């Protein structure tokens, strides 16, 4: 009977691989067309892989926890000729049937994916002859010079590629070479030193966050903040029949302010500053081992009442790691409500594809001088912090933007 593959699909425009979270079927199980059989995690969401036709599962070639490239055969379905014709599925030719995976891979890449060990057997183990830099028993080695990791030899870079290590990971390594340069011996000694440390494999979500933050930090990011009087928002929300989320007020205020000054969320490309074409805003949602940022489209074009259902839906999808592709990516700025964790001030980092993020602190009751009664009175305030690409805008531009944000937040009826 024809053998039909279960392939790792293209789950997003920039997604090249995904990690197997759960196998929902086993060999011998009967399936129908479009049945979800594998649950996978990308760097953006948890998604389901479905069958292209009905039949019987004859093999599952993927394992839970394994990272699979797009287009890889993950399982085999045995289907009838009639089912193939009805569903339009494409069966495998005899010479295309993949071999069953072995229990252990001998490739360096497979060894590098083992979160418990950095080292592999082979040529580099004997090349490391220097001693581990002294730390006094207090932690990782501290670099002796600021130029230590600026130059890395091709040999070191090859080892870094083999083990999935980035330049940022070498901030702990002391260089013993000329001018504080890191040598291959320094590198191998560092790997030996940390080899026995307790560790865990970073999830796709954690690796995605790490990659984003490294790319963001290549730009000059600055932050500016100011307090916001929260009484108008609290009162408005108290009397609103649907009790909109606090973050939605800030999302709407930022949208209206950016509609007036879209250049504050512009992009610098070469000698040009690009102005956003639409006010699509993200909202940071904390999930297990990372953050997801669903994006609401054209936030300035709707009233807050019209956005409540849409906002609640995307936040719920993000928390469950089931975000629809239409809400992924393409935002020009993000709102991050770190006040939900009791923080009064922070410096949030914009995504690499954005140049602006607005952070919101927790509400605090603080004493403020009143000229009317000539004494201090308790006022509910929250700090807002804007982190921005300083190449695109300056402090004055952000100051004016935050004045408009403050106006809208202190007059929530216009939102």
Quick synopsis:
This protein has 9 helices and 19 strands.
Description:
- The protein has 415 residues and is α+β, with helices and mostly antiparallel strands.
- It has 3 domains: 3-96, RNA polymerase II/Efflux pump adaptor protein, barrel-sandwich hybrid domain (OB fold (Dihydrolipoamide Acetyltransferase, E2P)), CATH 2.40.50.100; 114-194, no CATH class; 220-414, 2-Layer Sandwich (Chloramphenicol Acetyltransferase).
- It is 25% helix and 23% strand.
- It has helices at residues 81-87, 108-112, 154-163, 184-194, 204-216, 231-239, 246-260, 304-319, 395-410; strands at 3-7, 17-23, 30-31, 36-41, 46-50, 55-60, 67-69, 73-78, 221-229, 267-269, 272-274, 281-283, 285-287, 290-292, 295-296, 333-336, 356-360, 364-370, 375-389.
- Strands 9, 12, 15, 16, 17, 18 and 19 form a 7-stranded mixed beta sheet that branches.
- β4 (36-41) and β5 form a beta hairpin.
- α7 (246-260) crosses α9.
- The relative contact order is 0.11.
- Residues 101-149 have low confidence and may be disordered.
